[in-house]
Design goal:
Length: 311
């Protein structure tokens, strides 16, 4: 069907359009929703539109919603976007509610920035992630606006980084405090549990998003070389039977954690999300310039297939 108003082909709520920038009304609604001025802040507006479009595609496209696992969910979402089919009608409806400070339509998800991120794939080894490439492709959540408490912790982290007595454990503990505060301020709830041997081994942190999605985060420290942010690697577990953050490792850790601590919200949520094919894995890190970055990753696992490599 042809829409004489937008001068584009329409399939239901979906407009075939080359880019979101062709719809200035959507940008205006975003500015009204977040009380932004009529000009400026283009990066924030376009980032929100890009991320929320991906999130809506995952929420309303029947084919995408039927994806059996996270990788297929991301692949089908990318496929839909590559066909340049954007849910303009849905976006308009949801953004109008936001702009008018009214409840969202019942079908509309609450904005979750992580759901809008593209997934970072490992190298063919299956367990090494090139952070410099991910940064250049803008596949990350970058947090620079932080409260006084977080800024103080970042100062402490920078001191540890430059000091000679700082241990890996000290930096990781401090990074966890920073990431927990930052994620909480952005609407994510940390779930307790997910560890065993009196808390010495297990998951880094587990969060639940604003729409109920479950995120498993591991803290990793960047090893910059020159101007590059280098790579991040997931090692094999102490038993050598599985790679950290792989599906096998997730299952082992969750089961051992529940055996030791039966009341275990984090482990229970992870197992259920994994069974549903909706467990999202994250890397949290502190950048050399005191920014906080979160990446959504695939794997770790064996060598990704050519289809998955296209994400």
């Amino acid at each position: 069907m042809f829409d004489p108003v937008t001068q584009r082909v329409v399939i239901g709520n979906w407009h075939l359009t080359p880019q979101l920038g062709d719809h200035p009304r959507l940008e205006t609604l975003v500015r009204q929703a977040f009380d932004l001025p009529a000009s400026g802040h283009e990066y924030e507006v376009h980032t929100f539109l890009r991320n929320y479009t991906r999130q809506i595609v995952k929420s309303v496209d029947p084919q995408v919603m039927r994806a059996p696992d996270v990788l297929e969910l991301e692949r089908l979402c990318e496929q839909s976007l590559h066909r340049q089919q954007f849910p303009i009608g849905r976006l308009d409806e949801a953004l109008t509610s936001m702009a008018n400070k009214q409840p969202l339509p019942i079908w509309a998800p609450v904005y979750d920035e992580l759901q809008g991120l593209r997934t970072v794939l490992p190298t063919p080894s299956g367990r090494i992630y090139n952070m410099e490439v991910a940064r250049q492709l803008n596949k990350h959540m970058l947090i620079r606006t932080m409260d006084v408490e977080v800024m103080a912790l970042l100062d402490s982290y920078a001191a540890l980084r430059s000091g000679v007595i700082a241990t890996h454990a000290m930096r990781t503990t401090l990074s966890k405090k920073i990431l927990q505060l930052v994620m909480r301020n952005r609407g994510y709830t940390r779930l307790e549990g997910g560890r065993y041997r009196r808390g010495s081994i297990g998951f880094g942190m587990v969060f639940r998003g604003p729409n109920g999605d479950v995120y498993l985060m591991e803290i990793r420290h960047l090893q910059p070389t020159g101007s590059s942010w280098g790579k991040i690697t997931f090692e094999r577990s102490s038993s050598g039977s599985s790679i950290m953050m792989s599906d096998d490792w997730v299952e082992i850790v969750a089961q051992r954690s529940i055996t030791e601590v039966p009341f275990n919200p984090a482990a229970v949520a992870v197992l259920q999300a994994k069974a549903d094919g909706r467990l999202f894995k994250l890397i949290g890190t502190i950048t050399p310039d005191r920014g906080v970055m979160v990446f959504k990753i695939a794997g770790p696992a064996g060598v990704p297939s050519p289809v998955v490599q296209a994400l």
